[in-house]
Specification:
The protein has 458 residues and is α/β, with parallel strands linked by helices. Helix content is 31%, strand content 21%. β4, α4 and β5 form a beta-alpha-beta unit. The relative contact order is 0.18. The structure holds pyridoxal-5'-phosphate. The site of pyridoxal-5'-phosphate has 16 residues, from α10. Pfam families: Orn_Arg_deC_N, Orn_DAP_Arg_deC.
Length: 458
């Protein structure tokens, strides 16, 4: 198989962080008029997430949900770390396989697949795939010789930010019928999957779903199936600025797994995290391209006396909801910027709105926030922008997607290579993975970068 693993990234030199690269790029861009929006992605952050995952969920193998962010650099890094992949389409399967990932590290986790794409999976050795209906079973029976089917069950995701069980997942009461039909069709059902909804806010949903999965395993056993795969889906937070932290969720999941699927049950447990791995690795930097000052008529008359907020400011920036901020529409995201120029302690703040660059009135990033009086050419920084952003952005109105500058510290890069070649070593200390900028390189994730950098960041 032809494998292409190359992607470009810069090494961080000792003592510097991805945030220093943001500053460097802002300084470089500020010297010209081309102040395009850009991302800095710290691939070392993905490594840290992986270490955190293995510590918190030692029994659960992550199959990264490619839909969340299909950047080659991200997928290659995760492939080097040995994760599996949740693919929803032929193109995602192609991407993952182009990196040399073995088909048994792929689950085709889309319960409603196009026939031609099931045939593609069959021809390319991808066997694990989900289903939640009889029609899907019949399609698979016709188009795939060796499918290993996973029954996706519905969950109570009413408290999740993005609900998925409104669309996918068989209700518990339908499962026996589906398993019986699968048996009639001569299909192999190897396990159960679920998704508690993306942005899970109630860890007990996992508890209930794991218990439900146990029921379906028992049904399967009664029908002569010997199921050995439990897939607990996604729903894990991508950063720590959320109410329900990752470890609070895993503290509920682990005892539940031990109760319903103890280690000696020989059930392999996988998950499909997306947001968890990539959200915090990406910082988006946008530039103010236009501004309007809306005077409040009544306040305006008092202006000289009060000197307080008598106006609303409208800032227009060079990325919007048709681009990276599609997450506002599709992922229910609330994006708030931090300021590049730190405000003075006594700086007056104004009620502001922030708008994207397209001609559509829908293209609004922030409806209301307080910001100082900034100028065209100033920068705004949005953290935690790696999940469901670049993957679904368009170039509507001719606005191009921001460039992404990938960075990684040398210790992080070496650690990734060590894991790739020798497997997961004894738990690493995160402190040995300090980020640091240095030189631009061209790395493959499989070999030492060869092109040294021209300019150091410092
Ligand atoms: C089937 C499936 N698996 C995994 C994910 C990833 O979810 P998350 O980003 O919440 O981890 C999704 C997201 O929509 C999904 O549909």
């Amino acid at each position: 198989m032809n494998t292409t693993t190359e992607f470009e990234f810069s090494f961080l030199e000792e003592g510097f962080s991805a945030r220093d690269v943001v500053e460097q790029k802002i300084n470089e861009s500020s010297m010209s008029d081309d102040r395009d929006a850009f991302y800095v992605c710290d691939l070392g952050d993905i490594l840290k997430k992986h270490l955190r995952w293995t510590r918190a969920l030692p029994r659960v193998t992550p199959f990264y949900a490619v839909k969340c962010n299909d950047s080659r650099a991200v997928v290659t890094t995760l492939a080097s770390l040995g994760t599996g992949f949740d693919c929803a389409s032929k193109t995602e399967i192609q991407l993952v396989q182009s990196l040399g990932v073995d088909p048994n590290r792929i689950i085709y986790a889309n319960p409603c697949k196009q026939v031609s794409q099931i045939k593609y999976a069959s021809a390319h050795g991808v066997q694990m795939m989900t289903f939640d209906s009889e029609v899907e079973l019949m399609k698979v029976a016709r188009c795939h010789d060796n499918a290993k089917l996973v029954l996706r069950i519905a969950t109570d995701d009413s408290k999740a930010v993005c609900r998925l069980s409104v669309k996918f997942g068989a209700p518990l009461k339908a499962c026996r019928g589906l398993l019986e039909r699968a048996k009639e069709l001569g299909l192999d059902v190897i396990g159960v999957s679920f998704h508690v909804g993306s942005g899970c806010t109630d860890p007990l949903t996992f508890n209930q779903a794991i218990a439900d999965a146990r029921c379906v395993f028992d049904m399967g056993e009664e029908l002569g199936y010997n199921m050995n795969l439990l897939d607990i889906g996604g729903g894990f937070p991508g950063s720590d600025d959320v109410e329900l932290k990752f470890e609070e969720i895993t503290a509920v999941i682990n005892p539940s797994l031990d109760k319903y699927f103890p280690a000696d049950s020989n059930v392999k447990i996988i998950a499909e995290p997306g947001r968890f791995y990539v959200a915090s690795a990406y910082t988006l930097v946008v530039n103010i391209i236009a501004k309007k000052v809306i005077m409040d008529d009544e306040a305006a008359s008092d202006e000289e006396d009060e000197g307080t907020s008598d106006r609303t400011l409208m800032y227009y920036v060079n990325d919007g909801v048709y681009g990276s901020f599609n997450c506002i529409l599709y992922d229910h995201a609330h994006c708030l910027p931090s300021l590049h120029k730190k405000p003075k302690p006594d700086e007056v703040m104004y009620p502001c709105s922030i708008w994207g660059p397209t001609c559509d009135g829908l293209d609004r990033i922030v409806e209301q926030c307080n910001l100082p009086d900034m100028q065209v050419g100033d920068w705004l920084v949005f953290e935690t922008m790696g999940a469901y952003t670049v993957a679904a952005s368009s170039t509507f109105n001719g606005f191009q997607r921001p460039d992404i500058h990938y960075v990684m510290s040398r210790p992080a890069w070496q650690y990734v290579q060590q894991i790739r070649t020798q497997g997961m070593p004894v738990p690493a200390e995160e402190s040995c993975l300090q980020e640091v900028p240095a030189c631009c390189g061209r790395g493959s994730g499989l070999e030492m970068p060869t092109k040294p950098c021209q300019t150091n960041v410092v």
